[in-house]
Task: structure prediction
Amino acid sequence: MMALHDILVGLLLMVGAIFAFAASMGLLRLKDVYQRMHAASKAGTLGSGLMLIGLGIYALDLGVFARAFAGFCFFILTAPVAAHLIARAAYSVGYRPTTDTVIDPKVPAQPQTDLHR
Result:
């Protein structure tokens, strides 16, 4: 039974590390702040969450697992909101998307607001 436990923990840690590595490659290779933020918020959140769940399972303690699961839920709930707010702030202060970014013509553009009144 411990072999199955060790395999599950190792699998969660490896998959989490792969996602974290993909997030770091996205930060290095993507062109603008929006693409980089997307890579960091999506892949980085999933990678750190999977590693946190793996840690909770490794401990073999219900209290540790409950805290690890609560941390995972916190990551999943807060990272997309934070990424959206950062993207909106970046757009408001003038960071424009790269020319490779495809903008849907059916969606009306957001009016520019002057934050420095």
